[in-house]
Amino acid sequence: MTIGQQILAINLKSHTDFSSFYPGPNRLVVNSLKQLTPGDFIYVWGVTSIGVSHLLQACCAAAETRGQRAIYLDLNVHASIGIEFLEGLEDYDVIVIDHLEAIVGLEQWEQALFHLYNRIHALQHSLIIGAHVAPLALNLHLADLSSRLKAMLVLQLKPLNDADKLMALQQRSTQLGLDLPNDVGQYLLNHAERNLAHLLSLLATLDMASLRAQRKLTIPFVKHILASLL
Questions:
Q1: What are the residues whose beta carbons fall under 8 Å from the beta carbon of 63, sequence distance 6 or more?
Q2: Global pTM value
Q3: From the candidate CATH numbers 3.30.1460.10, 2.40.50.140, 1.10.8.60, 1.10.10.10, the one assigned to the domain spanning 162-228
Q4: What is the model's pLDDT at position 36?
Q5: What letter does residue 145 receive in the DSSP assignment?
Q6: Among the residues of the chain, which ranges form H helices?
Q7: Are 18 and 51 spatial neighbours (Cβ–Cβ below 8 Å)?
Q8: What single DSSP character describes residue 79?
Q9: Contact between 75 and 99 (Cβ < 8 Å)
Q10: Are the C-beta atoms of 13 and 101 separated by less than 8 Å?
């Protein structure tokens, strides 16, 4: 197994494909990523826990389905290891780099990413970068890298409103084979952290609790489970 394959195996989650992402107001962003073609350079950004990492990993899954070689690099995990992880990544058809903000101010990393960008461009392979801020707000030290990022197609993920969050929870519950009534979903929105990543994690916990207890999701049952998590 190569270094790249090890990175991919460690970071990709089994359920992070396009079908498990509820687009809400982000349908155009999702469609742009689904329609990725060779030579595309796309920068996706959005606030924490909004789904940037999910979509980036979905791009890898979709590329592999098309028979392409894809790699996912999470800079939150690998920025402290060394720039050697970037060597040879341009040979993949689709290169996905997440949490770019993790290397801002790290001179070696900024230089290495600049050169990787150029190598990918020369081969006309695809590059997708994810971050929690727009390119202009990154405050990179290397002006050449900053200019390259600004030249990419920049897509912003917008937050979901409560109605969309409920729809996202119900979509995920259907995929889990779990019935989530509207009143129970609304109860979760009113009594749990409102960021979607937390809500989906909580839904997975409720799914396991429902299976163990052989009970449907009702407000009293959910209230009991939530209390047990405190």
A1: 36, 69, 70, 93, 94, 126
A2: 0.88
A3: 1.10.8.60
A4: 97
A5: H
A6: 3-11, 27-34, 52-65, 75-78, 107-123, 143-151, 162-176, 182-191, 196-213, 219-228
A7: no
A8: T
A9: yes
A10: no
- What are 176's two structure tokens? 């889990």
CA neighbor of 69 nearest in space, from 42, 88, 41, 45: 88
DSSP for residue 48: T
CATH number of 3-156: 3.40.50.300
Number of neighbours of residue 152 by Cβ within 10 angstroms: 17
* Total Cβ atoms within 10 A of residue 149: 21
12-46 pLDDT tens trace? 555 789 999 999 999 999 999 999 999 999 999 99
Cα angle: 147, vertex 90, 77; to 5 degrees: 80
Domain borders along the chain are 3-156, 162-228
Measured CA to CA, the distance from residue 32 to residue 86 in angstroms comes to: 26
Q: What is the pLDDT of residue 93?
A: 97
Spell out, as residue ranges, where the chain has pLDDT lower than 70: 1-14
CA separation for the pair 79, 111 (Å, rounded)? 13
Beta-sheet strand order (sheet of 70-74): 70-74, 94-98, 126-131, 41-45, 153-156
Structure tokens at 177: 């084979």
**How many Å separate Cα 153 from the centre of its chain?**
17
